[in-house]
Design a protein that fits this description.
Rossmann fold; 5-stranded mixed barrel; binds S-adenosyl-L-homocysteine; binds iron/sulfur cluster; binds FE3-S4 cluster
Length: 463
Amino acid sequence: MQLEALTDETSTKSAGDNTRKVFVKTYGCQMNAYDSQRMADALGREGYERTDSPEDADLLLLNTCHIREKAAEKVYSELGRIRRLKEERAGQGREMLIGVAGCVAQAEGEEILRRAPIVDLVIGPQTYHRLPDAIARVRDGEKVVETDYAIEDKFENLPEPEKKAIAARGVTAFLTVQEGCDKFCTFCVVPYTRGSEMSRPVSQIVSEARRLVAGGVREITLLGQNVNAWHGEGDDGREWGLGELLRHLAGVDGLARLRYTTSHPRDMDDALIEAHRDLDKLMPYLHLPVQAGSDRILKAMNRRHTANDYLGLIDRIRAAQPGLALSGDFIVGFPGETEGDFEDTLALVEKVRYAQAFSFKYSPRPGTPGAERTDHVAEEVKSERLQRLQALLSQHQSEFAESCVGRDIDLLLEKPGRLPGQLVGRSPWLQPVIVDAMSSQIGDIIRVRITRTGANSLFADRI
Ligand code: SAH
Ligand code: SF4
Ligand code: F3S
């Protein structure tokens, strides 16, 4: 092994066959996307180079999502395909190690080894700091399952990304500041897969933000399952919430833009609302899921707020930042949901007029209180409600996009567009915006006028 490691260091691209390669496939939310990068960085130190083709992989890592049944089952169909890949490689005398990380790993643990014996490693999101050690054990032939709820910081032993790796990823980046959830909505697996709420300390967050900026990042999105539940001791010795943290990060030299996601209505405090009022660097966009519009269903979901609490909150946020675009998540067909309850959801949507939204059919998750209920809504009813809700949401989304035409905005140029000579960035409201520009301008912020809407994007001209 030592010899191989030495070869890695001296190998050039053409001798790349000697390098160990890791393929990471990410499912689920942005937290998983962030974790995949941190894991790839850590594996880089163990001599693994990242590859985009699974058939070249010496180590194949699936970073999984357990939020709905479909998401969780995808893992097993993927593992079926991977079995054939592994067998092909074995035929060529090459080994392929298989790891399952993420929320399915945490929820199902050993069960994954039983259902898919080709898996060598199961590692839950709380234990990524043990990844280098786990990989070493797997390489020694052990089957490893790591699914403790660790009390240590999951990133403690993981190296921070190197400048080169950051630069390769582009000018926007995620930064996890908070993990886990104590809210226990009755439909949701997250409190079980991600453990209880934990906030990373200010010093760690600032140091990572500075590092990202030094690597060329201009926009950072702070991540957390309930990102606005973040709290910690501030530089001034006082207890800070997310609003104070954003205010502090806005002072990081070279950082042009800040975003954060996902927020819970109950944790939207005054300081955070004031941050939207005061900070130019904080983009006027807020993902604030409400899930349903009926108080009866909100109560059954254990959301611990009413539809009116939510609408009142939206009014306060819009008063502080009138230009803010809202986004939300919805579940239709939670057990016991009547046509009347569902109409309350439509009425709430009509009042808020979301710029963007995500909506799902309720999926019963093992171990959650919702799954125990006996009054499940029929699948056809769920489908029909989802269709009606999505029609309304997409109508509002198009209307919002249309309302952007003719407006002048600052656009951060992020990456090449589909056609040569085009670049794509995101509007302050997170829509993709396409503009003619040279690739040397990636990372620049330019002034543009939005000229028309496309299928899922906006077009703009430089002014
Ligand atoms: N922490 C975030 C949501 C995380 S999960 C919050 O509290 O808003 C992302 C979205 O998946 C949720 O907002 C919800 O709309 C959806 N979701 C979660 N569990 C689900 C389930 N069992 N069935 C269908 N959708 C679900
Ligand atoms: Fe899930 Fe609710 Fe926690 Fe969001 S707040 S992660 S929906 S339990
Ligand atoms: Fe899925 Fe886990 Fe994220 S269940 S949505 S990957 S927190």
